[in-house]
Amino acid sequence: MNDLVAYRGTGLIPVASYARTSEDFRQRDGHGVRHQLRINERTARQQGCRVVAVYADNGLSASRPGVARPGFDRMLGDLLRGSTSDGQEIRGVVCVADDRLYRRPEDFSRFYASLTAREGRVYVDPRGVRDPYSQEGLLQAVRSLDAAVTETRVRSQRITNWHWARAVEGVPHSGPRPFGWQEDRITLHPYEAVLVQRAISDRIGGKAVRAIARDWCDLGVTGTRGGRPNAQTVTQIITAPRVCGYRANKGVLLLVPGTTRPVPGQWAPIVPPERWQAVCATFSPGSLYLHRGSGAPRLTEERAKPRRIGSGLLRCGSQRSDGTECRGAMSAQKGRSKRSPYVYTCRSCSRCSISGPLADEALERLLFSAAPEHARLSETVRRRWTGGDMDVDEKRRALRSVLACCVVRPGVKGNPSWDHTRVQPVFRRVVGESP
Ligand SMILES: [Zn+2]
Question: What digits encode the pLDDT tens for the residues 111-150?
């Protein structure tokens, strides 16, 4: 401390003034930093020092790893060199408190090494001048570090507890509004909630999520952040436990403490828990909300393969109340008769159905005898088809290459004869043209 005494006698010690506000500080207007720097000025004067350089980091955390603090780094560089960039000698640091400088051991050791890189340095704060080379000076600094580390730990535990306490009370998640609910996250959104409910029913009934997403796009539906619905977002929406009023936290269903009962949310559910369980059961575990959490990427991209050649290719020809044709995609379902072990039914209106074998026969006829010249299949493909060498996928590709779609006229109730003309082809203008 002889140096210090000497300086006091002859003049003021040139020090670096450092200030920092963390990101949780109310405003990033530099107000907090200016305030600290002013206190540093006063402290320096009171302790026989004079501020020759100012370093500040505004809105930067010192407790989170990986946050760069340019002001801090620049000051350490100047301390190591012994002077500022314009050649002013630095013999110490003034700060309002140690935790402005360091809250993590890594920063502490860097700061300490830079400060004591040369002899005769001082550390100054409103409590007085500290000799960083003495055991007492070092201990004081370590105690400050210890307090800062503890505080950081307590604070993050407090935040975790706060989230948990809110969750077990069934308080809705913070963050963007979930699809299906209004801004209050409690009341159902009249339109979206109906869509979610219908999507869950459709999915339980065997509809592909991709098709549901397409329907939503056709309806002009967007996510609550403006995104276009896709299979992934629809899966996330319809399998989220919140649809039945359950609360999940980080991908785990929250239970009432000490029980196996899920925490009931305070918001209005869209479907009862059985429906949520039923819709979840239609997905492989990896694609479920609960196994992924809300933000995690999907592990599997499950997509039920159509097992019938006409699925999706056949379109509903029944009339809607406004006189237009439904044109909804038809998919195969289990039929009730021996003659029709499966039937194609419109997924949109359900008002049009056709015997599966009848429709498939009609499709085959169209392909082999009715196709216009330009839309004929090659001889090789024909032979492979009739020879039984093609699987459903290949047959679907062959049909798709020739037919844009087929419109199915609704049948006449009680007519037992097969009417192949019910399947009306829409041939492609150019073979192989994409839909
Ligand atoms: Zn229809």
Answer: 999 999 999 999 999 999 999 999 999 999 999 999 888 8
Superfamily in which the 190-292 domain is placed by CATH: Putative Large Serine Recombinase; Chain B, Domain 2 (3.90.1750.20)
Residue with tokens 């996250």: 185
**Cα 410 to ligand 1 centroid, rounded to whole Å:** 9
The dihedral formed by the CA atoms of 221, 227, 229 and 234, expressed in degrees to the nearest 10: -110
Give the pLDDT confidence of 255-279 residue by residue, as tens digits.
887 777 888 888 999 999 999 989 9
Query: How far, in Å, is the centroid of ligand 1 from the Cα of 90?
Result: 82
Q: Distance between CA 421 and CA 129 in Å, rounded?
A: 99
Question: 326 C-alpha to center of ligand 1: Å?
Answer: 5
φ and ψ at residue 406, rounded to 5 degrees = -130, 130
Alpha carbon of 356 to ligand 1 centroid (Å): 16
Q: Could you give the C-alpha distances from 240 to 24, 236, 343, 399, in angstroms and in order?
A: 31, 6, 32, 38
What superfamily would CATH give domain 2-153? Resolvase, N-terminal catalytic domain (3.40.50.1390)
Q: Choose the most confident range, by mean pLDDT, from 120-124, 261-265, 309-313, 427-431.
A: 120-124
Q: pTM here?
A: 0.43
Identify the helix (H) or strand (E) that includes residue 170.
none
